[in-house]
Write a structure and sequence with these properties.
CATH superfamily of the largest domain: Clavaminate synthase-like
CATH architecture of the largest domain: 4-Layer Sandwich
Number of strands: 23
Structural class: alpha+beta
Bound molecules: N-trimethyllysine, 2-oxoglutaric acid, fe (ii) ion
């Protein structure tokens, strides 16, 4: 093992060692990939022993709230929850007029001025609120329901609501039929569309005028366009005007687009403006469904795919186009606090030389990649659709893979990428909780 470390440097060593699974980290490793467990074990090791102090209760009429002061945190029971709230965190989250500006929703408090050994001087509560007086006499008021929602104990439960699908689940899905006119005119219709899109990672808008302009208009109704080396709106045929297989007639296996961007584009739109010929059906499949199957069947494979950084690259020198893009990151990206999957970076065409991983880890990675590929290739996970003029497909490019059949004849496809943040912003504006 020793010699290969020199290739990767000291910083990388710790996590490579992680993958070698020396037995002292084995427990941590396993726990790390089941976030809650990590916290459980971390907390039980680090919680100071409960001091023999008595639980304090709120006002006599509020038996639903009681607390115990520890060295660095408050243990707060509220309805059926137990929260552990660090004192610096509590002071930092004071929403009083001098600490927080409700007009801008921004903090005014300088967190660096908070004594890291701060402790409440006095605590009292009534039915819905707990009041903490700090040593300098500043008083903070917290809604108990706010704490229940935003405390770690409240937030770690929160994951994006998704329906993971294979072909048969998708067939049963109640996908709304929404049209260009309805979406352009009605927020309710747009909301219906976005709710389906966020649940399934794909959704359609029908009866769209067959033009790049109308496609752009409907794109802008959903979010902001993510301009890229392929343009703002792209509109292409199989003329190899660009140095990429997409611009030919050959089949494309399932993939995520722009894996060679440090942040792959969040959403992609396709509108087939014309096809006189055969073939060219679109393949779609839920990458998260496949990845969750890998997690279930072999957690180690899943871990490896979340840890090993892989490089993707786009090199183009065709006509006037000179581009060289590089993106590096694991194939599966999970939030570190709860292990929820949020981004997949799977594109076997654009994956470039693996040169940052020692030989034994690389083998584990190939095994894990094979397991994921096997899942992704199961026919029962695939859906095939023929894109027709008028039907615009939206794809969550962080989750759903696309591909196509080979085709004959003239085929013109237009579309664009969207900024993911702005699509989510539209959804939140319409009242979707996300
Ligand atoms: C034609 N269009 C602009 C949509 C995509 C071109 C990008 C193709 C590239 N191989 C990738 O998968 O990212
Ligand atoms: O031609 C198609 O249907 C899709 C090609 C493709 O993968 C892309 O443009 O990103
Ligand atoms: Fe693509």
């Amino acid at each position: 093992m020793g010699r290969s470390w020199s290739l990767v440097g000291r910083a990388a060593m710790s996590w490579y060692r992680f993958l070698h699974i020396d037995s002292s980290v084995k427990h941590l490793l396993r726990a790390d990939f089941q976030g809650r467990e990590l916290w459980k074990c971390w907390m039980s090791n680090h919680l100071p022993a409960v001091t023999a102090r008595r639980w304090k209760h709120g006002a006599p009429d509020s038996l639903n709230c009681s607390w115990l002061m520890h060295d660095q945190h408050l243990e707060l029971k509220y309805s059926d929850m137990v929260m552990r709230l660090n004192y610096v965190w509590l002071r930092d989250h004071c929403r009083s007029a001098s600490c927080y500006n409700p007009k801008t929703n921004q903090r005014s408090l300088d967190t660096a001025q908070v004594d890291l050994a701060i402790k409440p001087a006095k605590i009292r509560s009534d039915n819905d609120t707990i009041y903490i007086t700090w040593p300098d006499n500043h008083m903070t008021k917290y809604d108990l329901s706010w704490l229940a929602k935003y405390s770690f104990e409240g937030q770690k439960q929160t994951v994006q609501r998704r329906i993971l699908w294979n072909a048969s689940v998708y067939k049963e899905a109640q996908m709304p039929y929404v049209t260009y006119n309805s979406v352009m005119e009605s927020d309710e219709e747009l909301k219906k569309f976005l709710e389906a899109f966020l649940l399934y990672g794909i959704a359609f808008i029908d009866e769209v005028p067959v033009s790049v302009e109308a496609t752009e208009a409907v794109a802008l109704r959903v979010g902001l366009i993510r301009e890229s080396i392929f343009g703002r709106m792209w509109d292409f045929t199989s003329d190899f005007s660009r140095g990429d297989t997409a611009y030919t007639k050959v089949a494309l296996d399932r993939h995520i687009d722009t894996t060679y961007f440090q942040e792959p584009c969040g959403v992609q739109l396709f509108h087939c403006l014309r096809h006189d010929g055969t073939g060219g059906r679109t393949l779609l499949l839920d990458g998260f469904h496949a990845a969750e199957n890998v997690r279930q069947e072999n957690p180690h494979n899943f871990e490896v795919l979340t840890k090993v950084p892989i490089k993707h690259e786009y090199i183009e020198n065709v006509g006037g186009c000179h581009n060289h893009m590089i993106g590096i990151g694991p194939i599966l990206n999970v939030y570190p606090w709860n292990n929820e999957l949020y981004l997949m970076r799977y594109n076997n065409y654009d994956r470039t030389v693996i040169s940052t991983v020692p030989h034994d880890v690389v083998h584990q990675w190939y095994v894990a990649h094979r397991a994921l590929t096997t899942e992704l290739r199961k026919p029962e996970n695939e859906i095939w659709v023929k894109l027709k003029p008028g039907k615009v497909l939206f794809v969550d490019n962080w989750r759903v893979l696309h591909g196509r059949d080979a085709f004959t004849g003239y085929r013109r496809l237009c579309g664009c990428y969207l900024m993911r943040d702005d699509v989510l912003n539209t959804a939140r504006f319409l009242g979707i909780k996300i």
